[in-house]
């Protein structure tokens, strides 16, 4: 059963065509993960480890999410032999994000080189510092969301939130 917008929908596991796990951070939530489900009749569902409680307020449901994903993968493997188990983003999204990340790196090197040669203002250096600060998050996205199939017996831990 899936609840979205107050409605309930029953999803027979045998109808699953694809189950995809993704690392999906946002500016407000850096520890956000998603499980995408696609059925043979074209319906799509997205489940996350976060529950929205208001502007910039999210409840962390990571422990329940990890347990649910493991149970879902096991059940889907038994009930839907045709189901594809995929890790990471789809290829178009991955290539676009990788291209943007590489472009940002190249532009950062060019900007630092130019500013060093002509002397830049403090505001420009602040913007460069912000880009440098967020760059590791972009690289983490690229590393975790490399598109690939996964063995349902070995759910990729980098695409599940850490629970302690």
Task: Characterize the structure shown.
- A five-stranded mixed sheet has the order 5-4-3-8-9, with helices on one face.
- Helices cover 42% and strands 25% of the residues.
- The mean pLDDT is 86.
- The chain contains three helices and nine strands; from the N terminus they run βββββββαβααβ.
- It folds into two domains: 98 residues, no CATH class; 46 residues.
- It is elongated and about 65 Å long.
- By secondary structure, it is an alpha+beta fold.
Concise overview:
This protein is α+β, with helices and mostly antiparallel strands and 164 residues long. The chain contains three helices and nine strands. It folds into two domains: 2-88 and 149-159, no CATH class; 93-138.
What key phrases describe this protein's structure?
two-stranded antiparallel sheet; single chain; 3 helices; 25% strand; 164 residues; alpha+beta; five-stranded mixed beta sheet
Number of separate structural domains:
2
How large is the radius of gyration? 20 Å
Shape: elongated
The overall pLDDT, averaged over residues, is 86
Question: Which percent range describes the beta-strand content?
Answer: 25-35%
Q: Give, in spatial order, the strands making up the sheet with the most strands.
A: 5-4-3-8-9
State the order of secondary-structure elements, H for helix, E for strand: EEEEEEEHEHHE
The SS-based structural class is: alpha+beta
Major sheet details: 5 strands, mixed
Find the count of extended strands (DSSP E, 2+ residues): 9
Tally the helices: what do you get?
Answer: 3
Tell me the distance between the termini.
Answer: 27 Å
Percentage of residues in helical conformation: 40-55%
Uncertain segments: none
């Amino acid at each position: 059963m899936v609840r979205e917008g107050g409605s309930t929908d029953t999803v027979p596991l045998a109808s699953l065509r694809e189950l995809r796990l993704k690392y999906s951070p946002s500016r407000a939530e850096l520890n956000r993960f998603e499980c995408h489900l696609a059925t043979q009749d074209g319906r799509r569902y997205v489940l996350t480890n976060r529950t929205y409680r208001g502007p910039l307020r999210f409840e962390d449901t990571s422990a329940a999410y990890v347990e649910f994903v493991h149970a879902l993968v096991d059940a889907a493997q038994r009930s839907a032999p045709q189901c594809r188990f995929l890790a990471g983003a789809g290829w178009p999204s991955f290539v676009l994000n990788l291209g943007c990340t590489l472009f940002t790196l190249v532009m950062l090197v060019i900007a630092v080189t130019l500013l060093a040669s002509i002397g830049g203002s403090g505001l420009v250096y602040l913007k460069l510092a912000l880009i440098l600060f967020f760059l590791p998050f972009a690289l983490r996205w690229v590393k975790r969301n490399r598109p690939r199939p996964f063995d349902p017996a070995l759910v990729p831990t980098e695409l599940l939130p850490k629970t302690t």
